[in-house]
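Lab manual, section 2.4: Encoding a predicted structure.

Procedure: take the sequence of the chain (218 residues), apply the prediction step described in section 2.3, and record the output as C-alpha coordinates. A sample record is shown.
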Amino acid sequence: MDIRTGFFYLFASVLLFASFRVITARNPVYAALYLVLAFFQAAAVWLLLKAEFLAISLVLVYVGAVMVLFLFVVMMLDINVDALRAGFWKHFPLAASVGALIALEMAAVLMAGFRLGEEPRAVPAVVQGATQYSNTKELGKLLYSQYLYPLEVAAVILLVAIVAAIALTLRQRKDSKHMDPAHQVRVRARDRLQVVKMGPTMVAPEPEPAPAAAETKA
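Recorded output:
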Protein backbone atom coordinates (compact mmCIF):
# COMPACT_ATOMS: atom_id res chain seq x y z
CA MET A 1 0.00 0.00 0.00
CA ASP A 2 1.50 3.31 -1.06
CA ILE A 3 1.22 6.63 0.75
CA ARG A 4 -1.63 7.83 -1.47
CA THR A 5 -3.77 4.84 -0.57
CA GLY A 6 -2.96 5.39 3.10
CA PHE A 7 -4.11 9.01 2.91
CA PHE A 8 -7.32 7.88 1.19
CA TYR A 9 -8.15 5.43 3.98
CA LEU A 10 -7.29 8.07 6.58
CA PHE A 11 -9.53 10.73 5.04
CA ALA A 12 -12.31 8.20 4.41
CA SER A 13 -12.23 6.98 8.02
CA VAL A 14 -12.42 10.51 9.43
CA LEU A 15 -15.20 11.29 6.93
CA LEU A 16 -17.28 8.32 8.08
CA PHE A 17 -16.70 9.15 11.74
CA ALA A 18 -17.66 12.81 11.25
CA SER A 19 -20.77 11.84 9.26
CA PHE A 20 -21.83 9.46 12.03
CA ARG A 21 -21.33 12.15 14.68
CA VAL A 22 -23.45 14.60 12.68
CA ILE A 23 -26.56 12.48 13.27
CA THR A 24 -25.68 11.33 16.80
CA ALA A 25 -24.43 14.53 18.44
CA ARG A 26 -26.87 15.92 21.02
CA ASN A 27 -25.76 19.53 20.60
CA PRO A 28 -26.75 21.10 17.25
CA VAL A 29 -23.62 23.27 17.24
CA TYR A 30 -21.40 20.18 17.62
CA ALA A 31 -23.32 18.48 14.81
CA ALA A 32 -22.70 21.46 12.50
CA LEU A 33 -18.99 21.47 13.39
CA TYR A 34 -18.74 17.75 12.64
CA LEU A 35 -20.38 18.45 9.29
CA VAL A 36 -17.66 21.04 8.58
CA LEU A 37 -15.06 18.37 9.36
CA ALA A 38 -16.82 15.97 6.97
CA PHE A 39 -16.71 18.59 4.21
CA PHE A 40 -12.98 19.10 4.71
CA GLN A 41 -12.31 15.37 4.50
CA ALA A 42 -14.41 15.09 1.33
CA ALA A 43 -12.40 17.98 -0.16
CA ALA A 44 -9.19 16.10 0.69
CA VAL A 45 -10.51 13.02 -1.14
CA TRP A 46 -11.26 15.22 -4.17
CA LEU A 47 -7.68 16.47 -4.06
CA LEU A 48 -6.42 12.90 -4.13
CA LEU A 49 -8.53 12.36 -7.26
CA LYS A 50 -6.89 15.44 -8.84
CA ALA A 51 -10.15 17.39 -8.87
CA GLU A 52 -8.79 20.59 -7.36
CA PHE A 53 -11.62 22.80 -8.55
CA LEU A 54 -14.30 20.64 -6.91
CA ALA A 55 -12.31 20.50 -3.67
CA ILE A 56 -11.85 24.27 -3.52
CA SER A 57 -15.50 24.84 -4.43
CA LEU A 58 -16.60 22.46 -1.66
CA VAL A 59 -14.55 24.35 0.92
CA LEU A 60 -15.49 27.84 -0.25
CA VAL A 61 -19.21 27.26 -0.87
CA TYR A 62 -20.23 24.77 1.82
CA VAL A 63 -17.73 25.46 4.59
CA GLY A 64 -17.29 29.17 3.97
CA ALA A 65 -20.90 30.13 3.29
CA VAL A 66 -23.53 27.47 3.93
CA MET A 67 -22.15 26.13 7.21
CA VAL A 68 -21.55 29.64 8.55
CA LEU A 69 -25.23 30.34 7.86
CA PHE A 70 -26.22 27.08 9.58
CA LEU A 71 -24.15 27.94 12.66
CA PHE A 72 -25.63 31.45 12.73
CA VAL A 73 -29.17 30.08 12.63
CA VAL A 74 -28.53 27.34 15.21
CA MET A 75 -26.79 29.64 17.70
CA MET A 76 -29.25 32.54 17.34
CA LEU A 77 -32.51 30.56 17.44
CA ASP A 78 -31.73 29.00 20.85
CA ILE A 79 -33.26 25.64 19.87
CA ASN A 80 -34.71 23.51 22.65
CA VAL A 81 -32.95 20.19 22.09
CA ASP A 82 -35.08 18.26 24.59
CA ALA A 83 -38.28 19.19 22.76
CA LEU A 84 -36.82 18.09 19.43
CA ARG A 85 -35.75 14.70 20.78
CA ALA A 86 -39.06 13.98 22.51
CA GLY A 87 -40.35 11.72 19.71
CA PHE A 88 -37.01 10.50 18.36
CA TRP A 89 -37.35 6.79 19.16
CA LYS A 90 -41.01 6.83 18.18
CA HIS A 91 -40.21 7.73 14.57
CA PHE A 92 -36.83 5.95 14.43
CA PRO A 93 -38.06 2.73 12.68
CA LEU A 94 -39.69 4.69 9.85
CA ALA A 95 -36.65 6.96 9.46
CA ALA A 96 -34.29 3.95 9.45
CA SER A 97 -36.39 2.19 6.81
CA VAL A 98 -36.41 5.24 4.53
CA GLY A 99 -32.67 5.72 5.01
CA ALA A 100 -31.93 2.08 4.19
CA LEU A 101 -34.11 2.28 1.08
CA ILE A 102 -32.31 5.41 -0.15
CA ALA A 103 -28.92 3.78 0.55
CA LEU A 104 -29.87 0.68 -1.44
CA GLU A 105 -31.10 2.77 -4.38
CA MET A 106 -27.90 4.84 -4.43
CA ALA A 107 -25.79 1.67 -4.22
CA ALA A 108 -27.69 0.11 -7.13
CA VAL A 109 -27.19 3.20 -9.28
CA LEU A 110 -23.53 3.72 -8.40
CA MET A 111 -22.37 0.11 -8.53
CA ALA A 112 -23.94 -0.40 -11.96
CA GLY A 113 -21.89 2.39 -13.47
CA PHE A 114 -18.76 1.98 -11.35
CA ARG A 115 -15.89 0.45 -13.27
CA LEU A 116 -12.27 0.20 -12.29
CA GLY A 117 -9.99 1.67 -14.87
CA GLU A 118 -6.82 3.57 -15.39
CA GLU A 119 -6.27 6.90 -13.72
CA PRO A 120 -7.23 9.81 -15.99
CA ARG A 121 -4.28 11.74 -17.23
CA ALA A 122 -3.98 15.42 -16.54
CA VAL A 123 -4.62 17.68 -19.52
CA PRO A 124 -1.62 19.94 -20.14
CA ALA A 125 -2.19 23.64 -19.80
CA VAL A 126 -0.74 24.45 -23.22
CA VAL A 127 -0.95 22.04 -26.14
CA GLN A 128 1.06 22.57 -29.30
CA GLY A 129 -1.10 23.90 -32.08
CA ALA A 130 -4.11 24.51 -29.79
CA THR A 131 -5.29 27.24 -27.51
CA GLN A 132 -5.10 27.06 -23.73
CA TYR A 133 -8.07 25.22 -22.21
CA SER A 134 -9.42 25.84 -18.72
CA ASN A 135 -12.16 23.78 -17.10
CA THR A 136 -12.96 26.55 -14.65
CA LYS A 137 -13.38 29.12 -17.41
CA GLU A 138 -15.65 26.85 -19.45
CA LEU A 139 -17.72 26.03 -16.35
CA GLY A 140 -18.14 29.72 -15.57
CA LYS A 141 -19.20 30.51 -19.13
CA LEU A 142 -21.76 27.71 -19.05
CA LEU A 143 -23.03 28.70 -15.60
CA TYR A 144 -23.56 32.37 -16.43
CA SER A 145 -25.03 31.80 -19.90
CA GLN A 146 -27.13 28.65 -20.14
CA TYR A 147 -27.88 28.29 -16.41
CA LEU A 148 -28.17 31.97 -15.54
CA TYR A 149 -31.84 31.90 -14.47
CA PRO A 150 -31.47 28.86 -12.16
CA LEU A 151 -28.45 30.58 -10.61
CA GLU A 152 -30.46 33.75 -9.95
CA VAL A 153 -33.34 31.72 -8.49
CA ALA A 154 -30.92 29.94 -6.14
CA ALA A 155 -29.44 33.30 -5.09
CA VAL A 156 -32.92 34.68 -4.30
CA ILE A 157 -33.77 31.57 -2.27
CA LEU A 158 -30.58 31.96 -0.23
CA LEU A 159 -31.34 35.64 0.31
CA VAL A 160 -34.85 34.82 1.55
CA ALA A 161 -33.38 32.20 3.90
CA ILE A 162 -30.95 34.74 5.37
CA VAL A 163 -33.68 37.35 5.86
CA ALA A 164 -35.97 34.75 7.45
CA ALA A 165 -33.22 33.64 9.84
CA ILE A 166 -32.64 37.24 10.94
CA ALA A 167 -36.39 37.86 11.31
CA LEU A 168 -36.77 34.78 13.52
CA THR A 169 -34.10 36.06 15.90
CA LEU A 170 -35.71 39.50 16.27
CA ARG A 171 -38.30 38.37 18.78
CA GLN A 172 -39.09 40.22 21.99
CA ARG A 173 -37.44 38.88 25.11
CA LYS A 174 -38.27 39.66 28.69
CA ASP A 175 -34.65 39.83 29.77
CA SER A 176 -33.63 42.39 27.11
CA LYS A 177 -33.90 46.15 27.59
CA HIS A 178 -34.16 48.38 24.55
CA MET A 179 -35.32 51.87 23.60
CA ASP A 180 -37.64 52.76 20.75
CA PRO A 181 -35.82 55.28 18.48
CA ALA A 182 -39.17 56.79 17.40
CA HIS A 183 -39.99 57.72 20.99
CA GLN A 184 -36.52 59.17 21.48
CA VAL A 185 -36.92 61.43 18.43
CA ARG A 186 -40.34 62.73 19.53
CA VAL A 187 -39.25 63.48 23.09
CA ARG A 188 -39.52 67.09 24.35
CA ALA A 189 -37.55 68.84 27.04
CA ARG A 190 -40.59 69.79 29.14
CA ASP A 191 -41.64 66.14 29.27
CA ARG A 192 -38.34 65.06 30.78
CA LEU A 193 -37.26 68.11 32.82
CA GLN A 194 -39.24 70.08 35.39
CA VAL A 195 -37.84 73.26 37.00
CA VAL A 196 -38.86 73.75 40.64
CA LYS A 197 -38.39 77.16 42.32
CA MET A 198 -36.82 76.95 45.76
CA GLY A 199 -35.71 79.56 48.20
CA PRO A 200 -32.02 80.31 48.70
CA THR A 201 -32.17 79.29 52.36
CA MET A 202 -34.35 76.93 54.29
CA VAL A 203 -34.94 76.61 58.03
CA ALA A 204 -33.65 73.37 59.42
CA PRO A 205 -36.44 71.16 60.73
CA GLU A 206 -36.67 70.71 64.51
CA PRO A 207 -35.57 67.29 65.76
CA GLU A 208 -38.41 64.99 66.72
CA PRO A 209 -38.69 64.06 70.42
CA ALA A 210 -37.42 60.67 71.40
CA PRO A 211 -40.21 58.12 71.88
CA ALA A 212 -41.13 57.45 75.47
CA ALA A 213 -39.87 54.24 76.99
CA ALA A 214 -42.43 51.49 77.21
CA GLU A 215 -43.93 51.00 80.65
CA THR A 216 -42.88 47.85 82.33
CA LYS A 217 -45.52 45.49 83.50
CA ALA A 218 -46.06 45.29 87.21
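Check your result against the sample. Residues 52-77 form the longest helix (26 residues).
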